[in-house]
Every structure is written in structure tokens, then in C-alpha cells.
Amino acid sequence: MEKRMFGRTGQQFPLLSFGAQRIVDEHNCTEEEAIAIVNRAIDEGITYFDTAPSYSKGQSEERLGKALALHGRRKEVWIATKTHDRTRDGSLKLLEESLKRLQTDHVDEWRLHNIMTMEELDKCFAKGGALEALLEAKEQGMIKHISISGHTNPRVQLEAIDRYPFDSALVALSAADHLVYSFAHEFLPKANEKGIAVIGMKVMALGKLAPWYEKALQYTFSLPISTSIVGMESMEQLEKNLAIANSFKPMTELEQLDFLKEIMHLANPDVLRWKSTDWVSGEWYVR
């Protein structure tokens, strides 16, 4: 599988990475299945795992932690988790709980989770805000790298990377996302210019791109990004994604354009719900 540089970190990752949000009861994945899926992914070369304390009230982190501890594989992988709290104190408390569930003394990457508006960004950067927690945690060795994520408005993340040299950014980069508030068009060039690793997410647009499964993955893989996380809740999904990633050939500009024309009808509020400011974080956490 093709590997790419991860921004300024000196690390490399395969273009397919593991979104651990779905290895939970809520997505009909048992603990036994979760452990098997995670270990199969590592066996096949996947080393980047993304999770968050808000995914199924910590069950995602807990299962990822168990899967790695059971077979002693923590040192083989890079763990990224998040804080949905906008304050220093609240974020540090979340990190302490995340480390316990993940059964580790540090995470490789910690993100400001789903920063949707300038107001939220301001809260994180204010005195006593979440950014203070990220900086303190890094100084204490509890985290290695500082990140931010966003689904909604690329201008918010553009402002963020102008204010602070984040190591990475996790942003919505499905083909459907290209059609409204496009991170691919607005954010990606600037992030690349600054040496910030960009991780693609929402690759299947919450399942709306399933009829074009292979094309959807190929489109995001073809962007100038470091890697893409894909949520996987079954061994079948993992194997399908591995097969596509292992045989990946970049789409030409013409192929990308044809695909965008084919899915243009999906550019509406019912499909791209995360582009709306009223699609909040309620899906992941309670404020």
C-alpha cells in the first residue's frame, strides 16, 4: 500500500487509515469482532488509528485500547484522539480519561474536535481555553502532536492554522464535500504550503457515496493528503477497503471531474448535513 509523509513529523503512513468510531455496540460490532478487526488492520500495514472520547461514550477508545493491549501492539501504532471540551480544565480531564481507556501513557496526536465556528475557535484560543491544555499535555509528554478537526467551514480551519502551527488537521474530504464549502479547494493548498499533515475524513459521506464505493475512496486517496481515515465496523468492510487501497491508482483530473458531475445531485442539506451550523456535536457528545 502506498505510504505518504505526515506533514513535518517525519512519519509516514499508508493512504488508508483506521477510523475507530464504529467498532462499538452502536454499530453492531462486538468487542471480540473489534479486537479481531483492529489486529487484522495492523497485520495488513495500517498503523494510524483515530478515535475520540465522545464516540459511544468512550467505548471506541476502550476497545481500541483492549485490542492493542491484548496483543502488546501499542508500539506498532499511532493513536489520535480528541477533546470536545473548549476549556483547559475540561480538556485535561478528558485526556486523563482517554489515556486510561486506551491503556497508554501518551497519545501520538490530540485534536481539537469539530471546530465549527469562529466563536468556538476563539474559545479554544482564549485564556483558560483548550489550546492551553494541548500545549501543557505536550510539554508533559502525554501527547506528541497537536491537531484540529473540522467538517463544516474551511475558513475556520484556515484561521486556526494562521493562529497556530498545528501538526495536522482532520477535515471532511469526500467527493461530495468538494461541492459545498470545499476543504479540498480552500483549505488543502494552504495546509500543504505550511507543511501541515492533512487527514481526509467523511470519505463515504455518511454512506451516501456507497453506490460509488470504489470511486469515493479513489477520489479522496487522489488528493494531496497524508492519509484518509475510514470508519470500519466489520471485517468485510476492512477487507474491501484494503483491496481498493492496495490496488489504488490516482484518478486523473478528468476522471475526478466526471465523478463530481455524477454525484452533483448530492450537494444538498439532507446529504451534507455536517456543512450546516445546526448539525452539531450532539451526534458525538453532550456539551
Automatic annotation (TrEMBL):
Pfam families: Aldo_ket_red. Residues 16-218 form the NADP-dependent oxidoreductase domain. InterPro entries: AKR2_Oxidoreductase (IPR053135), NAD(P)_OxRdtase_dom_sf (IPR036812), NADP_OxRdtase_dom (IPR023210). Gene3D superfamilies: NADP-dependent oxidoreductase domain. This is Aldo/keto reductase. It comes from Paenibacillus planticolens.
